[in-house]
Design goal:
Blueprint: H1 8-18, H2 37-50, E1 53-65, E2 68-79, E3 82-96, H3 102-118, H4 138-155, H5 159-168, H6 170-176, H7 181-206
Antiparallel strand pairs: 1-2, 2-3
Helix pairs in contact: 2-3, 4-5, 4-6, 4-7, 5-7
Length: about 210
């Protein structure tokens, strides 16, 4: 007699019954152990295949805040034998990266937690491999850049130093102007005033 096709919940319960523990790991440079996305996938995916459960992300909504990607999404768990038999699990993810890997990290984070919570598995405190990467608020980042420019203006002792400082901070000043035009204007005024002072001093020294 053929085995009766099970419902999705029965399939998930079978998977849950076979996954008892996922080993935490501590990679080089990490302060504490965590359950990584790869460890969860390696443990869970073969059992999902075995019991006929497909899972995939859906409805991804992404927001970028400085160097942190924030997203909300759903993970769909469906029976491979009946496309109408599925559940939707809401989840969220965060990924901090200074280049272009933030969205991928955020999705991995979200999928990992959907699997952990759906199957009732243990997790560790987690910013995964990015726990030592600080979140940078755009306004704070630009304020720091402008503070550095203002400090270089104050410390410049001749025209060459001052012009070098302006060149060094050019890109940061342009970015900051989109966030805090008032501060950029004040910094440029301070630059112009310091430039005049240094040029006047140079004239006096050279007798020009």
């Amino acid at each position: 007699m053929a085995e009766k096709i099970r419902t999705l919940l029965q399939r998930l319960a079978a998977v849950q019954g076979e996954v008892d523990y996922i080993q935490k790991e501590k990679k080089s440079g990490m302060r504490y152990s965590i359950v990584s996305h790869d460890a969860v996938t390696a443990k869970v995916r073969p059992l999902m295949v075995k019991h006929g459960v497909l899972y995939y992300p859906s409805g991804i909504e992404i927001k970028q805040v400085g160097n942190r990607t924030e997203l909300s999404m759903q993970v769909i768990f469906a029976s491979v034998d009946d496309r109408t038999d599925y559940i939707v699990v809401a989840t969220a993810g965060y990924g901090i990266d200074d280049q272009d890997k933030g969205p991928g990290k955020a999705i991995s984070y979200a999928v990992k937690y959907a699997l952990l919570k759906t199957l009732g598995l243990e997790s560790g405190d987690d910013p995964d491999e990015d726990q030592d990467t600080p979140h940078v608020n755009p306004a704070d980042e630009h304020n720091l850049a402008m503070a550095a420019f203002e400090a270089d203006i104050a410390l410049s002792t001749d025209v060459i130093e001052l012009e070098t400082a302006a060149s060094k901070h050019k890109v940061a000043i342009e970015k900051a102007s989109a966030v805090n035009k008032g501060r950029v204007l004040l910094a440029r005024q301070a630059y112009a005033a310091k430039l005049k002072v240094l040029k006047d001093q140079l004239k006096e020294k050279t007798g020009g």
